[in-house]
Design brief:
alpha+beta, 106 residues, 3-stranded antiparallel β-sheet, 3 helices
Amino acid sequence: MFFGKGKREKTPGMVYFGESTRKNGAKKVYTGITRRPVQKRWGEHINSTKSPNSKTWVGKGTGFKPMGAFVSRNPEKAEKTIKQLKPYQKRYLARRAAMRYKKRKS
């Protein structure tokens, strides 16, 4: 429970990247956040592409490939900032996050 008038602390989470293949063959970088295990969230995205009546942005594509993830103290703010970047900047961040995530995981 939260009592008082002070600021509430944000819960840390993961900002993750994935490459979504669209129906026309274009590859787009998807950015999302989760406070659950990132592998589980990636699995949900992969399953949504297999569902014929999926209404999600990723699910409307033909495939999803996980790219990388990083921990953030304020994932909502990080995601909002990343979504404003150009596609080549997002890919650069995703590659860097993938390298850090692999090192951290082992």
